[in-house]
Amino acid sequence: MKLKKPLRLNVKRADSYLAIKNRLKTAEVRLLRGCIKSIKKDDMIYLAHGGDKVTIYVDKLKKFGSIEEMLENNLVKTASGGSRKKLDVKFYEQFYRADEIERHEVVVIFFRLG
């Protein structure tokens, strides 16, 4: 049996990466496209920022039709690490173009650190 190579996802914001590393943030939001579509429960993933990386294991995936729908979910709010920044569609436009946000579903990857 051939094992697949762990996926590597980059975390663009230093504060988000630090919250993950300090176990304050236990979920990562991504558009459901490309390699994200292949993620499954118990997958090992490297989350990286700059030259640093942490290993996570996927506990659960929760799919939403839109970012607005995802932001209404209390479980997602809790897993975001008690973020002080206002999370709305505008916040996610720093990572994705508006047309991408409109076109794709959203997945929240709930995880534990390895």
Q: Can you characterise this structure?
A:
The protein is an alpha+beta fold. The chain has a five-stranded mixed β-sheet. The longest helix has 8 residues, at 14-21. 25% of the residues lie in helices and 32% in strands. The radius of gyration is 14 Å and the shape is globular.
Radius of gyration: 14 Å
Kindly report how far apart the N and C termini lie. Answer: 23 Å
Extract low-pLDDT stretches. Answer: none
List the quaternary state of the chains. single chain
Could you provide a short overview of the structure?
With 114 residues, the protein is an alpha+beta fold. The chain contains five helices and five strands; from the N terminus they run βαβββααααβ.
Write a concise keyword list for the protein shown above.
globular, 114 residues, five-stranded mixed β-sheet, alpha+beta
Question: Which SSEs are present, and which pair or pack?
Answer:
Elements: E1 7-10, H1 14-21, E2 27-31, E3 44-49, E4 52-64, H2 67-71, H3 74-79, H4 89-92, H5 98-103, E5 106-113
